[in-house]
Write a structure and sequence with these properties.
47% of the residues are buried. The protein has 7 helices and 16 strands. The model has no long low-confidence stretch (mean pLDDT 95). The chain has one domain: Carbon-nitrogen hydrolase (Nitrilase/N-carbamoyl-D-aminoacid amidohydrolase, 4-Layer Sandwich), CATH 3.60.110. The protein is of the alpha/beta class.
Length: 275
Amino acid sequence: MSVRAFKAACVQLRSSDDVAENIATTVALVRDAAAQGAAFIATPENTTLMALDGGAKLASSFDEAHDPALPVFAALAQELKVWLLIGSLAIKVSDTKTANRSFLVSPDGQVTARYSKIHLFDVELASGEAYRESSTVAGGDAAVVADTPWGGIGLTICYDVRFPQLYRSLAKKGAFLFTVPAAFTVPTGTAHWHVLLRARAIENGAFVVAPAQGGLHANGRKTYGHSLIVGPWGEVLAEAGTEPGVILADIDPALSFAARARIPNLQHDRDFSGP
């Protein structure tokens, strides 16, 4: 199978509770990535809104038809002629909940794929931080592989990275690359971010593009940053620090096929019985 290589970019953000400001910052960084030759550009989870809590996020959210960011990003992708993955927006789906939803926009400005985060982050950390994403977010129930000129791209979000069965399913459905937009906490990011992303790449012979939120946000939350692009052999191709900005790496889909040929574990996967 002959497929062409391309340049991918992660946009790293430090989003606030000001939607208009976040949109403007994202647009500027996407333009920067495109100017550097990126054909596929991905932004983090919570691209346009890092609210104080779930209630504040709900109050500042819109349904998909009225979200102010989507038309802006669709027009931007069309203008720049790039594939643009908006890592996630808070999309209002009821009076009490939003969906944490990724959107893949094609170079003609059309949303070609949507993915609502399946696994919700409900946890109390040793540091005392507590998160109850499910209290105001409705979890998704469908895995998504998006069609692109380069092949299938599997869409995931943040906490999903801890569920390897999702990535195996995406790989078996043809994904050669996974997107993992995130807003990881600092303690969990320090301990697990690199290991988890490299593991998902190695297990499936796939590229991983993981744009992140980073730094101290206006609401007092700290996120880990360190946006990563990982190759299918587990090698880190590009990494950010904690500041907003852009990282880029060359992506050759043929390397995914080569990795899967060297270690054909996708072919060797077997069903089994037991506990």
